[in-house]
Amino acid sequence: MNTFFADLQNKINQAIEQSPAKDIEKNVKAMMSQGFAKLDLVTREEFDIQAMVLEKTRSKLEALEIRVAALEKQLAAPETEK
């Protein structure tokens, strides 16, 4: 009985390989690949890396803004309070 199913599966696979459906699949994949290449997309990994870099940059910017505000406050204070 297992041989029957294996033979049936092989015949179905051969029919699919020789059918126009296989060519259509290849053509659709090629067209989609070309379309995606024109869109200038990035991978999820590249996106995640850039998101992490952006988060680190934001954190550093916030820290620098706090430091600058403190320095400006010191500069604005009268000489006697220094």
Describe the protein in words.
- The protein is an all-alpha fold.
- It folds into two domains: 1-41, no CATH class; 42-82.
- The chain is built from three helices and no strands.
- It has helices at residues 2-18, 20-38, 44-76.
- It is rod-shaped, with a radius of gyration of 31 Å.
- It starts with a helix and ends in a 6-residue tail after the last helix.
The number of E-state strands comes to 0
Distance between the termini: 95 Å
Count of discrete domains: 2
Strand content: under 5%
| Total DSSP helices | 3
For the sheet with most strands, the description reads: none
The multimeric state of the shown protein is single chain
* Integer average pLDDT: 85
Helix and strand topology:
Elements: H1 2-18, H2 20-38, H3 44-76
Keywords:
single chain
Task: Summarize the entry for a quick read.
The chain has 82 residues and is mainly α.
